[in-house]
Amino acid sequence: MMIYLMRHGLAEPFGSRNDELRELTEAGRNQVRAQFIASRDRLLQIEQIVHSPYLRARQTAQIGAELLGVERLLADDRLVPEADPRLALELLERDSDTTTLYVTHNPFVGKLIGLLCQGDSRQPEPMDTAMLAMVEADWPAAGLGRLRGKHAAPFRT
To answer: What pLDDT, on a 0 to 100 scale, did the predictor assign at position 156?
Structure first.
């Protein structure tokens, strides 16, 4: 299975408002659009997008759904910045029969990739805003994944 992971686009500065309500900036929306357009061929098979309930992740997912023609969007608390990546393995297992894009945050996304590929979330994979990562695994479990690629957003802020 291929696990698609994306960090949300550039958002309002930390501390500008409640973290859950921070929005994408205009540059962040452009960055996300550029990433989805550049990655369209890689993401054509996406059947659903699961995202953190935080506003900036939801906005990123909505832009992706529009550009990719994905109708199923789901929010999940296991994808918030401070979540335990081990709990996300349950989510990945639940979705193992559905090609899914997960939109989340730092430091969580890097820790999840570290857990999947190295078996340890203390070795996070660096992820810039709007970056897309693809992890291949026979099953979504700690240490069984192989990082197959990371793609930075073509639009730089």
So the answer is: 60
Fold of 2-151: Rossmann fold (3.40.50)
* Per-domain boundaries in the chain: 2-151
Only one residue has tokens 């309002």, namely 12
Break the chain down into helix, strand, coil percent, rounded to 5. 35, 20, 45
Q: With 80 as the cut, is the pLDDT of residue 155 above it? A: no
Task: Give backbone dihedrals phi and psi of 144, rounded to 5 degrees, phi first.
Answer: -95, -5
* pLDDT number for residue 10: 96
Rg (CA), the chain: 14
Name the residue type at position 78: R
Helix (H) or strand (E) holding 120: none
Distance CA 2, CA 112 (A): 14
Q: Is the pTM of this model over 0.85?
A: yes
Q: Alpha helices of the chain — where are they, by DSSP H?
A: 26-38, 40-43, 55-68, 85-94, 108-118
Report the C-alpha gap between 12 and 25 in whole angstroms.
6
For residue 157, pLDDT over 60 is answered with: no
